[in-house]
Amino acid sequence: MELIVFDLDGTLLDKTSRISEFTGNTLSKLRERKICYTAATGRTLHAATSVLRGHYFDQPMILKNGVLTYDPKYGRYTETHLLKFNDIQPFNTMLLENGITPFVFTIDDSHKHAIYHRQKLSVSERRVLQLFGKETDVPTKPLEKLPANIQISNVSAIGPAEVINALCDSINNLTSLVAYSGKAIEDSNVNWMDIHHSAGSKSRAVNLLKRKLGIEKIICFGDSDNDLSLFKEADEAYAPENAKECIKDIATRVIGHHDEDGVAHLLRSRFNLI
Fold this sequence. Notes:
By secondary structure, this protein is of the alpha/beta class. 34% of the residues lie in helices and 26% in strands.
């Protein structure tokens, strides 16, 4: 049994962060052939399902880069690697001292989500918050109300590249946390950052799925640093033209651009989907 694993942003999704009609039709052809597929994304459950709805992603999904695995058949998380308040508070303080708002994503004992942030936001941060509100129904709350006993899936931030990169470097020197970053706005000096538990990775989560589902072969698609572990574990790994060089260097093959249905064209050729 083969399992196709898609990264979303910059890979399966187009520049509008949606599945194009051509790619959607390709997914339908995979289902007709009973070829299984799922997502391994840096997105939360709500942000992922908002763009995947109607495309029958009914296999367990890997979220927040492997921090969470969600099984849609049972409507629950089957694997979690969560942080505590004390794990992230020093970095929240560092972000705030640099004028950057931490967006703290939380999960309570009932698996209900919330996002905590400070009230004063930059223009870029307001856009981020609008995106959260547009794509999810997750409530947002004041950062000062963040409970000390809450479980945290990740902390996200957006700000000047030099500050974000320096914070990422300091975090990645630790063993308990991992941070990813990238350009938030093309041709700008604004970067995004995402911090989560170091036990969460796409490769770890996929290996668990392999054992659970009896998968013999993993075929994956991705474009950025958070896909490196997945590429190293997969039997076939494909990078779109827009991918980072570190991903292209270890890919089985570089395919078409994510905004030109590169993934879909490869799938149609690879599986002879007519």
